[in-house]
Amino acid sequence: MATWSNLNLQDSASPLMEQLAFFHDHTLLIIIMITMLVGYLMATLFSNKFTNRLLLEGQTIEIIWTILPAITLVFIALPSLRLLYLLDEISDPSITMKSIGHQWYWSYEYSDFFNVEFDSYMTPYHEMPKNGFRLLDVDNRIVLPMLSQIRILVTATDVLHSWTVPSLGVKIDATPGRLNQTSFFMNRPGLFYGQCSEICGANHSFMPITIESIPSNMFINLIKNMNN
């Protein structure tokens, strides 16, 4: 989760988020190089004494400043397109979970198991444990196995919501009357926090998401206890 004075991206907990962080760094480096070049050229314009009142064209420099930006855009576009296709790819999921957005809480269903569904509300401040996180903790966490491909189906019952967990690289809209899907893969255990990132009404700020990643054998035992 994000912490105080953290200007970087959150630590990734999935391969997709790692790729997103790499693409961010790659693009940021290109932006810094362009900024330094343009800044240097602007600085030299203030100090040089070069004048040529008969200059009408410069085909060589025009070719250069047309081709170089095009090559730069290719270096940004190719990794971006690769990443877009990776984000949409859903390959042989182990578990399917359904998330339903309401004003202003989430409902979850484990579609592969019988009668496993629950609502998830934000924990009120006066009920929060000492080590809890204000506006991020919930009364019923999503519990999922690590090192497993998870598919999530997202919809809403009233207005637009958006199911977003930054450390997993997941952001998908919850639209009434429409079922969207995406997938993610958690490569380590832990607690991963997210929030609704679509302005959905007065209590939009109070729709947190908490995912607890646990080993597969513990998850199987948990599901058995839920069904009993």
Automatic annotation (TrEMBL):
GO (cellular component) term, any one: mitochondrial inner membrane
TM segment ranges: 21-43, 63-87
GO molecular function: copper ion binding; cytochrome-c oxidase activity
Function field: Component of the cytochrome c oxidase, the last enzyme in the mitochondrial electron transport chain which drives oxidative phosphorylation. The respiratory chain contains 3 multisubunit complexes succinate dehydrogenase (complex II, CII), ubiquinol-cytochrome c oxidoreductase (cytochrome b-c1 complex, complex III, CIII) and cytochrome c oxidase (complex IV, CIV), that cooperate to transfer electrons derived from NADH and succinate to molecular oxygen, creating an electrochemical gradient over the inner membrane that drives transmembrane transport and the ATP synthase.
Catalytic activity: 4 Fe(II)-[cytochrome c] + O2 + 8 H(+)(in) = 4 Fe(III)-[cytochrome c] + 2 H2O + 4 H(+)(out)
Chain ranges of the Cytochrome oxidase subunit II copper A binding domain: 95-214
CDD domains membership: CcO_II_C
Self-association and partners: Component of the cytochrome c oxidase (complex IV, CIV), a multisubunit enzyme composed of a catalytic core of 3 subunits and several supernumerary subunits. The complex exists as a monomer or a dimer and forms supercomplexes (SCs) in the inner mitochondrial membrane with ubiquinol-cytochrome c oxidoreductase (cytochrome b-c1 complex, complex III, CIII).
Entry keywords, A to Z: Copper, Electron transport, Magnesium, Membrane, Metal-binding, Mitochondrion, Mitochondrion inner membrane, Respiratory chain, Translocase, Transmembrane, Transmembrane helix, Transport
Cofactor(s) this protein requires: Cu cation
Classification via PANTHER family: CYTOCHROME C OXIDASE SUBUNIT 2, CYTOCHROME C OXIDASE, SUBUNIT II
Gene Ontology biological process: ATP synthesis coupled electron transport
Domain Cytochrome oxidase subunit II transmembrane region profile as annotated: residue spans: 2-83
Record's cofactor remark: Binds a copper A center.
Membrane topology according to the record: Multi-pass membrane protein
Annotated organism of origin: Archichauliodes diversus
Location in the cell: Mitochondrion inner membrane
Stored InterPro entries: CcO_II, CcO_II-like_C, CcO_II_C, Copper_CuA, Cupredoxin, Cyt_c_oxidase_su2_TM_dom, Cyt_c_oxidase_su2_TM_sf
One of the Pfam families matching this protein, by short name: COX2
Family of the protein in this entry: Belongs to the cytochrome c oxidase subunit 2 family.
Gene: cox2
Protein name: Cytochrome c oxidase subunit 2
Keyword Transmembrane helix found: yes
